[in-house]
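User: Show me an example of a complex going from sequences to C-alpha cells.

Assistant: Sure. Here are the input components:
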Amino acid sequence: MENRLRVLRAERNWSQQDLAERIEVSRQSVNAIETGKYDPSLPLAFRIAELFDRPIEDIFVSPSRRSSKAI
Amino acid sequence: MTARALRTTAWKRYNWRVIWLSLLYCGFLVPAVYGFKHHLIAGAAAWIVAVLPAIPIIGLFAAMGRYLVEEQDEYVRMLTVRQMLWAMGFTLSCATIWGFLDNFGLVGHVDGYWIVVVWYFGQAVGSVANKLTLGDGRC
C-alpha cells in the first residue's frame, strides 16, 4: 500500500530503527511497510497514525481511491 | 533481512525450546536404540519406548505453534507463516511424488519420520522464497 511513512519519518529525522522502536516492531517491518511490500494490520496502522498525530488516511493511501483517481 | 535482525524475543524463546526438545529426543532415542539392539525390551514396554523419541519431535511442532502465538512483530510472523506454507507444500509434493515412485517400484521405501526432515528442508525453501519475493528471509 502506498504511504507517506518515509516522508513523515524524514521530517522528524528518525531512522527506520528509531521509528521501529517507537511503534515496537522490527526495523525490517518498517522497511517493508515503507516500500509497500507489507500492509500493516489495523492496530499497527492506528499505532503509526497516533505516533504521528494524524488520521490514518493522511499516512496510508486508500487503494480504491488511488485507482479511482487513475480512472 | 539478515537472520540476526529477525531474532525477536519470541524467536529466541523458540530456539531454547528446540534445544531442550532436541536434548530430550537424544535422551529417549539413544536408550531406545540400545534397548532394541540388545533385545532388552519386549511387550508393552517396547511400544512405549519406541514411541518416546517421537514425543519431542511432536513437541517441536507445538513449539512452532507457540512461537506464532508469541511473536509480537506481525511482519516477522507473516514471513514465518509464508515459510511454513512453503514447507508444507514442498513436503506434501515430495511425499506424493515419492509415494508414486515407490508404488511403481522405482525407488525404495523410506521410513515415515523422514518427512519431518523434508519439512525442515522445506522451511529453507520457504526462506529463499521470502528472500526472492520480499527481500527478507530467515533459515
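The lines above are the inputs; the final block is the predicted structure for all two components together. The two ends of chain A are 18 Å apart (CA to CA).
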